[in-house]
Amino acid sequence: MQTTLKxxxxxxxxxxxxxxxxxxxxxxxxxxxxxxxxxxxxxxGDRLIAxxxxxxxxxxxxxxxxxxAGLQVSTVEHLMAALAGCGxxxxxxxxxxxxxxxxxxxxxxxxxxxxxxxxxxxxxxVRAFEVLKEVRVEDGDASATLCPSETLRIDFEIDxxxxxxxxxxxxxxxxxxxxxxxxxxxxxxxxxxDVLAMQANGLALGGASGENAVVFDGxxxxxxxxxxxxxxxxxxKMLDALGDLALAGVPLLGHYRGVRAGHSLTNTLxxxxxxxxxxxxxxxxxxLQARRLPGFGLVWDEIPAVA
Length: 307
What we know:
By secondary structure, the protein is α+β, with helices and mostly antiparallel strands. It has 2 domains: 3-121, Ribosomal Protein S5, domain 2; 127-302, lpxc deacetylase, domain 1. It is built from 7 helices and 21 strands. The strands form 6 sheets. It has a 5-stranded mixed beta sheet, covered by helices on one side. A 5-stranded mixed beta sheet has the order 12-13-20-14-15, with helices on one face. The longest helix is centred in the C-terminal third of the chain and has 14 residues, at 232-245.
């Protein structure tokens, strides 16, 4: 059955890219509502923005959504990953600014907040998109692929010149609480040289520090306390991928493979999936399929304590 939150929950903080402080309130919604954002700081016009693949204004640094009136909300990927990973199908997300707060750079604060509120079961079946044949997109040495699978599986591979990151790869089947247990506390990461370059170009104005990101410089981890996981960077890339795939609108039953992929390429993959004849179909999940979706089997004690 579909779910929503039992009661509203709010989060406040600065945006990583804009530096602006905003408050996000996740509110319960009815069955078949889906996930929508509402800009409460806008007095007139269309304030609603769909959390959907065809509303993405593609960007390499974050996932940005835009409605037909040109109203935007950015850096939605961590919140979307938390909603998907906790099995939330319907919510209205009110935000009083243009960017979702970065918090600690991971999805763990959102996950803990959602789990503290709890979920309410709605009288409507869960629908999912079932991938029927392989779809692949490339951009230079980066690629993203979706192919058939009984459940959502994510494989990811990264390779950075910085020796503190290097080559990392990981595979996870995204059910039985795997997202909360394995990925949700992994923080966004960047190189010190990139931070300085972005700030020089008016980006990352919220600052990338040990409080909201892992900062690397060659063979050094500059963030106080070091890494939460030895392979935290690739885990965070998988977190981002789940958040971006959640913009399909309903859960995906498919195998995602990302090689050096980012937000823009994953969105290109979704666009290709829905543009390819007979590549995907919507199904009403039977009890067995529902047990294979992200969020099923999530246990509070398995949520990382760092959140």
